[in-house]
Protein 1
Amino acid sequence: MQEENYYYMSTGTPTYWPTDPQKTPDLLDFFVTKGLSSTYADVTPSFELSSDHTPVIATISSSVIHKQPTPKLHNNKTNWDTYRVKYLGMHLHCKMTWKCHITKKRKQIDLLTKQMSWLLGRRSKLSLENKILIYKTVIIPIWTYGIELWGCACKSNINIIQRSQSKILRMLVDAPWYVSNETLHKDLNLKFVKEIIMDRSRQHMSKIETHENELLQPLRELINNRRLKRKWPKDLI
């Protein structure tokens, strides 16, 4: 193709979707052109047919085709400070207690849940699989952000998040009152907040111990001078 100056056009995504779970999707459908600029052509998939192949449609124009950019969660101009505060609820301040931070997270979760009630509510027509997927990708990152730090909070403060998550799971599956929270977590294959704190803390400390940056060395050392019985992140593992 290079010797003949041929050029291929494709969607960049698989077009063959095998029914056998042992096989992986593959890109089999594409176009081969010569002497045609990519700015005057566009390739899109067609999902109207129900088969193991996704047809591709090529559009060739006499003028430049303006393609819409691919949506992304962030870009190089993202203000991460604003993102952490607005979307992840991370309000760290030396004069605030862990209960203040956790309460802010709980209020943010409650507000987001109300806004998405038409998707996650008991009357939603979404499948349970899609509801769980939304829960994992939208709601869980809010309260797990910074969990390696606020996981040191006392049991009563951590239970604030746990109660909030249990209510959401009940709403997702429309569970009756006699179904226990333990049953919900087990059937949905979801961990309790305490279990996630332990897992994330182990991962955090494991990364610190193998990190090359020498400035992280103090985080690996044990702290002997402690104020009262306050927990430290390393105590969680």
Note: The beta strands are 6-9, 31-34, 41-45, 56-60.
Protein 2
Amino acid sequence: MNLFTIENPFLRITLSDLGATWLSCVVKMPSEEREVLVTTSAKDWQKQTAFFGATIGRYANRIANAEYSLNGKTYRLAKNNGNHNLHGGTLGGDKVVWKVESQSEQAVKFSYIFADNEEGFGGEVKAFVEYRLQGNELHISFDATTNQDTPLCLTNHAYFNLQGSRNILDHKLMINAEAYLPVDSSGIPNAPLKKVEGTGFDFRSAKKIGQDLLADDDQKAVKGYDHAFHLAKNSENLTACLTVEDLKMELRTSMPALQVYTGNWLKGQPNLTNGEYGDYAGVALEPEFFPNSVNQPELLQFGGITKARENYYHTISYRFII
């Protein structure tokens, strides 16, 4: 694992070539330097199983029964989440070493070639991930091409806790989404998109994450929020906002959905002080296509398959406001 630091007067970002990982995000507050990622040390990173800050690929989230059919052929994938495929498989993009394509004081660009039939997926994918600092913002861009039609959904799996507290239940969250996707207890979509209005999934106005936690059967199935929200607007508009008393993080993305995972199963993961995190210690906000979209046409309409020689390009930006 090689580490890379990019820094300016607002932020200090530490990256790793193992998983093209966002390992640390230090915000330079007036009275302190504050780590805002739920993360672990470089020496303990391979002990964690929560995908802390990693680049996820070739397909983020779950593919039901670890298989899909495309262009008349069925592909069988690694089963690494019960009977399902999660985040690309046993050796997804989070567990491989990425090549450093370029490096400067403000940016690092990584690349990795997913081989044809790697983890069972068809097609070779040449993927690039760039982290770039610009003032009080971190921009992540994902750029890829493939030599045959293939499922492709790259994202970052950072968890946030903006005040280093025991959990994120008092963090206020706003999500610019009018619908969410119900799932079964294994995280596979089991119903059409559902309006957030009148449910515990309504974050159109900022509210504490803990306010409606576990208040309905959809959440109880997965021990909290672990659902994709259908975003109302594109990257030019605010996607989500996470807030504590003295710090706010604004997220924007070009992706159509945002998986919100409230760290329901973080208990036992290694922290930065040789201890362990508890459940709900951080919240992951993962811009992506919808889970299992490759097997559900009503979800695939929002994306999930990249055509041969077609350019895949998506962005995420994080702005930190003191």
Note: The radius of gyration is 18 Å.
Protein 3
Amino acid sequence: MKTNRTLLTVAALAAVQLFAPPLAAQDKKIETANLDAAVAANPLPAGGPTAKVISSTRAGNSELQIIRMSKIRLHHHAQEDHVVYVARGSGTARLENDAGQIESRPAKPGDIFNLPRNKKHAFERSGAEDLVLLVVATAGWKPLEDTVFHE
């Protein structure tokens, strides 16, 4: 019985350490932003890149990026897991399955994609409206160094 209480206490303390915000984050002020304003202020330039991070904000060990895009080529990240939420637009997601094959499926507002590291993925809009993706990732990762393109 004592061993069970000890294990429970250790597990509780570990959970507090794991999920407690860093001390520096506790001193930060609350910030607000507006998705529609960020999208309106950051169109993709004609003839320019097909995707860009239009806004980014950090909280503790997490970062939320707003990505506006018409196409993101097939790629993977060796060091980064991330979650993608489709906020605007519709298109196609190309995702690597467990057998290593690329499958296509529709991507529409409200869809959430859990993209583990080393799994290939791509997005492309359909129609005239750009896709707007909210991407949650580990703060401080280096996408240009960690992204491997396959096309």
Note: The two ends are 58 Å apart (CA to CA).
